[in-house]
Specification:
The protein is an all-alpha fold. It is built from six helices and no strands.
Length: 157
């Protein structure tokens, strides 16, 4: 295969990367939905989401990097913005069961996702000392962090 072969199917490099990023978003959504469905208690759903996030980053590093680090213009690729919104739409109902307001639910979603994202990057870049950089350890940390963040809210009836 020649270096130029992909451009028979994509207008340019960014279009190719956008197609790969969309694949990444779809795979994440599949994994997150599976993780959320495995539990009924919202704090445990968030913990499972955080673990799935870290695991996706470790198992699908190229897709993770393209999805989050390629600097793609979502204005030029609105399908990426829609895919990101789909991930939000899957997790927001969980955080809404914990936080008392829509703003609080969104804040909780951002905090859990940001913690999982940061831990995923730390693990990828070998920034955590042994033995804490092992994937299982990072997954445990992501789950504990999600539970702790969820625990800051008074349980809703």
């Amino acid at each position: 295969m020649s270096v130029s072969a992909p451009y028979k199917h994509f207008a340019d490099r960014e279009a190719l990367l956008a197609a790969l990023a969309l694949k990444g978003y779809r795979e994440q959504q599949r994994r997150y939905r599976t993780a959320l469905a495995a539990h009924t208690e919202p704090a445990e759903q968030l913990a499972a989401f955080a673990v799935a996030y870290v695991r996706f980053a470790a198992e699908e590093r190229a897709l993770f990097d393209i999805t989050f680090l390629a600097g793609l213009d979502k204005g030029r690729h609105p399908e990426l913005a829609a895919a990101g919104q789909g991930l939000h739409d899957d997790v927001m109902p969980v955080t809404s069961r914990i936080a008392p307001t829509p703003e609080g639910a969104f804040d909780l979603l951002v905090q859990v996702a940001a913690a999982a994202h940061g831990l995923a990057l730390f693990q990828q870049q070998d920034m955590l000392p042994a033995p804490w950089n092992a994937l299982s350890s990072v997954e445990d940390q992501a789950a504990r962090t999600a539970r702790a963040l969820a625990g800051q809210y008074t349980p809703r009836s």
